[in-house]
Amino acid sequence: MDRGLTIVIPTFxxxxxxxxxxxxxxxxxxxxxxxxxxxxxxxxxxxxxxPAEVRVVRLEMNRGFATAANRGVAxxxxxxxxLLNSDAVVQAGALQAFVDAFASDARLGVAGARLLNEDGxxxxxxxxxxxxxxxxxxxxxxxxxxxxxxxxxxxxxxxWVSGAAMAFRREVWNPLxxxxxFYCQDxxxxxxxxxxxxxxxxxxxxxxxxxxxxxxxxxxxxxxxRDLLTWGKSHYGRAWWLFAxxxxxxxxxx
Length: 254
Known about the structure:
The chain has helices at residues 15-28, 46-49, 65-75, 94-104, 132-140, 185-195, 221-236, 238-252; strands spanning 3-11, 33-40, 55-59, 78-84, 88-90, 108-116, 126-127, 160-161, 165-169, 199-210. The chain is α/β, with parallel strands linked by helices. The chain has a single domain (3-129, 147-215), classed as Spore Coat Polysaccharide Biosynthesis Protein SpsA, Chain A, CATH 3.90.550.10. Helix 5 packs antiparallel against helix 7, helix 5 (132-140) runs parallel beside helix 8 and helix 7 runs antiparallel to helix 8.
């Protein structure tokens, strides 16, 4: 059945968070919406805890976020699809704000939420194409303390949005790159969409509280460093990568 909106929630051993995520979605979702939880080989009983209104797609083996997300999108019937982390809680009106944004702008291809920390402070929601300086701040942990890295929540056009709550038109979809360990799939996906002529932006009214890193037990700066280098090598080339891996190794230790 064709749907207006499909929400895909990949999860691995985050049963209680996934349940909270689903409850928030079900409490405020627009008409003609389906919710798909992709259980990526969990061993904590995730599938049995999901509400009856949620469709569960279970993978027998843990394959990682990108694989689970790709499987969920393949099962989706919506014209608009929202990838939502299991540690994300949509606020009232957020889902409708996504739907309205796409309905009002035919060039909008990818839309991110305005992400908030659990204390209500702003969280990275997206930004410009990553530079080496930006990467160094991110892997050192300094970026989360710098307000200048957070000023990306307005309705202006940007290069990428966070995959924690990332919506897109079905015709924009290209499967996420499964070679990344956990990070950077969102950056690569958004840049591909932009290159194809689609607009990418954060929707200020679509507010989502995101438990940053809770799906993997906290932010993993080493995995972030490796994924940023993998992405950077494909985007900037081998010479950049040779230099950047030294720089990021130094900042990872700070």
